[in-house]
Amino acid sequence: MKKLKKDDKIIYCYKGSSREYLVEKNDIIQDTDLSCLEDTEDNTITLITCVENEENYRRCIKAIENK
Question: How many CB atoms neighbour CB 51 within 10 A?
Fold first, then answer.
């Protein structure tokens, strides 16, 4: 996930249907920062994972649905 960059595609598949999202942000955040989970006007997907060798930080990828 650390290689994702702006406008890369994320395909989300579930029960035979899929949606395509375009990456907007790939940021490193504090593990206590939940602001990336706030409501948005757009249909977005948020992916959060750990940062290698940085226990107090997380990688946060935000992507907007490509309609």
Answer: 15
